[in-house]
Amino acid sequence: MDRLPHLDEREIEIILGSVTLSGTLSLPQGATGLVMFVHGSGSSRFSSRNRYVARTIRSANLATLLFDLLSPEEEKIDQITAELRFDIGLLTERVIGVTSWLRQDNDTKTLTVGYFGASTGAAAALAAAAELPDIGAVVSRGGRPDLALGVLPRVTAPTLLIVGGNDGQVIEMNRRAFLQLHSVKEMKIVPGASHLFEEPGTLEEVARLAAEWFRQYLTAE
Question: In what order do the strands lie in the sheet with 34-38?
């Protein structure tokens, strides 16, 4: 449970064409920005890792939205075929659609939006940021930004890539992606961390780095 005072948290449904996506919107009073969580392959808005990071980000007085990239019907298909979780084009459309919803909602339309992406969700977050130049910041956790390599030069949002020190293959994928980014950028390698940051203290470091990045770039001067 969050201990922040005056936290407005509600379950929402976002209708995008024929698809309805579920989400959890958490708004601290006086929030200075909002971070959308774009989960990774085979995950959902109930990801324990993303929820932990979201709590830390809210302590920086930033709102958070955790939502499902796929509808329940699509999720059933994906559990069998695992094809939709790698459909970066589809996932990017969902991220852009949800961002548009946030910009029309009375509670969130004035907040600068940032993206926190994990695994394949990081590629969708960066691809969406390439299409939306007013996105305030992007953070990738153990992400696959290489899956959006072609659009990375168009990303203008300050971007932080966080990778586990023991996640050798993903480190190389992120290094290739890092070279294609022309925005403000940093790459942080968390020592002793594997792909899922399950080792003691590693997820806490991810949350700290992400909160600092979003506080810097989403908070109005």
Answer: 7-16, 19-28, 63-67, 34-38, 113-118, 137-141, 159-164, 185-190
Q: What is the residue-averaged pLDDT of the chain? A: 91
CA distance 65 to 120: 18
Is 125's pLDDT higher than 90?
yes
Residue 201 pLDDT exceeds 70: yes
What does pTM read for this prediction? 0.92
- DSSP secondary structure letters along 49-97: HHHHHHHHHHTTT-EEEEE-SS-HHHHHHHHHH--GGG-HHHHHHHHHH
Domain ranges of the chain: 7-218
Task: Name the CATH code of domain 7-218 (choices 3.20.20.70, 3.40.50.1820, 3.90.70.10, 3.30.1330.60).
Answer: 3.40.50.1820
Partner residues linked to 34 by β-bridges: 63, 113
For residues 113 and 36, is the Cβ–Cβ distance under 8 A?
Answer: yes
Which residues contact residue 40 at a Cβ distance below 8 angstroms, ignoring those fewer than 6 apart?
Answer: 47, 85, 117, 118, 119, 120, 121, 122, 142, 143
